[in-house]
């Protein structure tokens, strides 16, 4: 056995020490620490059991006090679940739980989970995603095992490493992007650069291109498709092109006014940085920067005004590439062939869903008027700015810093995001299958967790059908009700991860067309765009190739989602952990936590903006009949009346100033209705699978129904800076506590479980 050499050194007082002996002492300390932690954990479990026995005799929350200690569930799962719930509740306010259940459920959590100094809010789901991202960041930082440059692991980890290369990104300029813009064979210059010569016009373009030339090079060669839209498989054309909310372009309130100013200042600052890196120093450079900012804002304001006048319909117009090319006098068929890696993936008869005909009519009347020199310059500057904005976070840090300053000014509070955070998010968003593989091969994803989630989802669907048959009085007519049941019968689930994420060879083939360099992040970002073109081509030719996981994964901040065009519920592997699910927990916990969250998504399959406008096969069609629309609106008005006439206001303290916000109830009331519906569906599923029967939880002495409602409430715990929530409330998005209490107050099931006084008008049944 090889001996370990002793290391001799000096301690902080200059005394000679033996490092080998120190390691022995350190080991004993660690061993002692582990023993202490073990005893502490055992003490916690004993405490839960003791509390369970005591509360069976002296319970202030549950009013049925005639139970003996044998009625307590003492399985490992019950003890684990009770321990989890006890960490978050605030029993000191239990006497008021009928009116403010949120504070009872989450008061303890709020005291022990402060907002981080660099954040503006903290939520349960946000914590899960942050832990997942931290784990993925650690895995991306780990050594490359499969070092072949063709392997998915080499490509993704190299991309991440170059994104994080602080030295390179601090000491480089935007010369690569500038060279792309000035390349005569592609974008062929920019007003910002071209008009820098002496005695050159500062109003008109020196070089101009047709709209097709600009769109094909800027959008097709270097721009990015909107990766947040899952309907791209259907070639759906939808309004885009805005940098701010529609109201920000028109309203005269202080918030919108300051946002407009911040946006134009941001463009000017970026233009000045680009000019500096391009070596442009003429006396008119700042004037041209102002001109670019004004042109961009003018185009976006025109588009925003069109969108305001012509809201997007829930039922799009069905057409094809040939027809819209003729209608808008623009070569849509050619540009789509140019933008896709495989031109044969489409034809002139490829179906198109045009979501807003009037918006596109207005937009193309503007952007095709290039005979007018002023409009020609505006379109020219707007398109090139959109390219820069696309890659702004991939540029050197001085550009990134200006972007972060703009976001802070736009939202009214400082947004802190490290480069590590950005790079992790980008890799998760751009390479979802590689991340699935990296995560699942290094994390404990147990088959029993997947089985539990599958059981929960299946039981929710059964309960949903029962709800439609026996309740759902708001869904008045049988035609609508039958279509809702037809959607549920056809609904499929995808739980865990895509099959491709379990095979290295398949992933290597999938990422074959993605090329990565180990010394240039912006080039890698552009290389990703080229790769993404091939992905879209394959998706159009083989829409079921990846079983639709590819488009669920374009939503990296979602742990679960219902996607209407596929009529499918997705649950990703990283969401199948505590505090949402545990295979050992009683069903009251699993149905109350993840169950209600999934039920909200299922309920959206019939009442959400997408769900009520998509048939079971994914075809767009508004299938609600007039009687159901009236019944739903009656319930919606009832909830709105509760917010306006009963709750009335919400109060916030911002920088020592107390501010009251008058509630309008809209557009938030549909969210409350969905919460009520989801709770009712999950509660019904629990009643069919109640494994606790008459037993109560240890420590809390709650029944299974009470545990169910508490489990859901504790998925809604949050902390948020008052100013942020104030702004959200003013825009009609109420906080989780308000939403939870509003839903529970309108549920007779909750009132019965906790022996609260039930409301006469429940609004939604």
UniProtKB/TrEMBL annotation:
<protein>
    <recommendedName>
        <fullName>Endothelin-converting enzyme 1</fullName>
    </recommendedName>
</protein>
<dbReference type="InterPro" id="IPR042089">
    <property type="entry name" value="Peptidase_M13_dom_2"/>
</dbReference>
<keyword id="KW-1133">Transmembrane helix</keyword>
<feature type="transmembrane region" description="Helical">
    <location>
        <begin position="29"/>
        <end position="50"/>
    </location>
</feature>
<dbReference type="GO" id="GO:0006508">
    <property type="term" value="P:proteolysis"/>
</dbReference>
<keyword id="KW-0645">Protease</keyword>
<dbReference type="Pfam" id="PF01431">
    <property type="entry name" value="Peptidase_M13"/>
</dbReference>
<keyword id="KW-0378">Hydrolase</keyword>
<dbReference type="InterPro" id="IPR008753">
    <property type="entry name" value="Peptidase_M13_N"/>
</dbReference>
<keyword id="KW-0862">Zinc</keyword>
<dbReference type="GO" id="GO:0005886">
    <property type="term" value="C:plasma membrane"/>
</dbReference>
<dbReference type="GO" id="GO:0046872">
    <property type="term" value="F:metal ion binding"/>
</dbReference>
<feature type="domain" description="Peptidase M13 C-terminal">
    <location>
        <begin position="567"/>
        <end position="758"/>
    </location>
</feature>
<dbReference type="Pfam" id="PF05649">
    <property type="entry name" value="Peptidase_M13_N"/>
</dbReference>
<dbReference type="InterPro" id="IPR024079">
    <property type="entry name" value="MetalloPept_cat_dom_sf"/>
</dbReference>
<dbReference type="InterPro" id="IPR000718">
    <property type="entry name" value="Peptidase_M13"/>
</dbReference>
<dbReference type="InterPro" id="IPR018497">
    <property type="entry name" value="Peptidase_M13_C"/>
</dbReference>
<keyword id="KW-0479">Metal-binding</keyword>
<dbReference type="GO" id="GO:0004222">
    <property type="term" value="F:metalloendopeptidase activity"/>
</dbReference>
<keyword id="KW-0482">Metalloprotease</keyword>
<feature type="domain" description="Peptidase M13 N-terminal">
    <location>
        <begin position="98"/>
        <end position="497"/>
    </location>
</feature>
<keyword id="KW-0812">Transmembrane</keyword>
<keyword id="KW-0472">Membrane</keyword>
